[in-house]
Amino acid sequence: MSRTAIRNIILLAFISLAGIIATQIFWVKKAMDLKEQQFNHRAYVALKSVSDRLIHDTKNKVQLDGINRKASNYYTLDFTSPVNVRMLENYLIIESKNQNLNSDFEYGIFECTTDSFYTGRYVNIQNTGKIERLKIKAKPSENYYIGVLFPKKTSYLHDDLKLLIFFSIVLLIVIGFFTYTILVILKQKKLSEIKTDFVNNMTHEFKTPISTIALASDVLKREDITKYPEKLHHYATIIQEENKRLKNQVESVLQVSQIESHKIALNITEINMHDLIENIAKNMEPRVSELDGKIRVELHAKNAIVEGDEVHLTNILYNLLDNAIKYCDKIPEIQIETINKHKGIEIAVRDNGKGIETSSQGMIFEKFFRVPSGNVHDVKGFGLGLFYVKSMIKLHKGKIALHSTPKIGTTFTIWLHTKDNKNGK
Ligand code: ADP
After folding, report:
1. CA-based torsion, 350, 356, 357, 362: positive or negative
2. What are the extents of the domains in the chain?
3. Which of the listed CATH numbers 3.30.980, 1.20.120, 2.160.10, 3.30.60 matches domain 3-159?
4. Does the 268-421 domain belong in CATH 3.30.565.10?
């Protein structure tokens, strides 16, 4: 799947999710508005019926001046004649139930002139029979009003919010799964790209020695070749060298499966890392000098004795130095420095090469990973060197760190236990 296709899928999925969220918010809001309108209407009808019944009972002695909505959950009914409080409460309960209001209410009778409270109480609509009625303390004056408050109106309306929260949680889970799926797709894509690169790379790397061997053996097959022993020797050497190269390449690939199946056993001996470094630096010197470069060795560690596998430790340093030369686009200036640190030895291999982009640094030790270089394959490799280095350092219970600045250079720092302190740590 192409990068643009994946980007479009992600974009479409996010647009759809945003659409679902917006629609959900819109409908919940609409449902809440409708519910509020319905509540207001029912409350009004209930209070109207209450006042109608009061007027009817008192044979038109009660004069209704109107029902006023003072707040979203508070209504007043103005009367100019006294009213039977017990009847009022009964009517309020009956009409509330008739209108399916299902919301507790508080009513009170207040004097108009002083706004003072005369009587009233809180009515639990689910439990109307069990609550004692308040005693009426005094007769109300001529001008009074009845206030009816629905204190639980907001929570009654917000019942729908619970639904919104539930849907939001479901949506969050969906988004979580979606993000996870995208990450898996991206990871798989990266892996398949890495594998394709590796196969292409390997085919390319194998083709060169194979065709060289084919050419050299064609020459050797000539009947008159025995007349030219130097030529014979020369072509036989080419075949031998190319064969060695092929063998090394196959071995480096096979080594990966050995590392992964933990089949590598270390042959532990006491090693003086300074001797090892000096030896490798000496062997690398001709390659660096050919490029007019230099390898500087600064051995400051007082204790350089490590218990490890000489072959693997040599390979580790060889790999790092090989990379320092391979990935250098200037005259190579390589430095190997040792110091004692945290009861061990720290070996830093510093170069002035291309450096590694921050975006690639996290993957540099992964198998088959090579820093993307477009279609330019000027530097040979399978992306296995650093995977091997890290795996071997881990097997030696050591550590490796990378510090790199693009266009300036790279430093790989290895830390290994030194002999004296290994048991003490
Ligand atoms: P290989 O060299 O075979 O490609 P490695 O595992 O040794 O594999 O290195 C992985 C990648 O890390 C290389 O392809 C290269 O892009 C980058 N790299 C490694 N060492 C250096 C270095 N010293 N300077 C710059 N880039 C490096």
Report:
1. negative
2. 3-159, 164-260, 268-421
3. 3.30.980
4. yes
- Tens-digit pLDDT profile for residues 166-225: 877 888 898 899 889 888 988 888 888 888 888 888 888 888 889 999 999 999 998 888
Give nearest CA residue, ligand 1 atom 4: 383
The CB of 315 under 6 Å from ligand 1? The reply is: no
Determine how β-strand 333-341 pairs with β-strand 294-299. parallel
First vs last C-alpha separation in the chain? 51
Ligand 1 atom at minimal distance to the Cα of residue 319: 7
CA distances to 49, 248, 276 from 197, rounded to whole Å, are 83, 20, 34
**Pair of tokens at residue 114:** 């002083």
Ligand 1 close to Cβ of residue 384 (< 6 A)? yes
Q: Distance (Å, rounded) from C-alpha 281 to C-alpha 89?
A: 102
Asked if 109 and 118 count as a contact pair (C-beta separation under 8 A), the reply is yes
Contact 157, 36 (CB under 8 A): yes
DSSP one-letter code for 195: H
Q: pLDDT tens, 295-307? A: 999 999 999 999 9
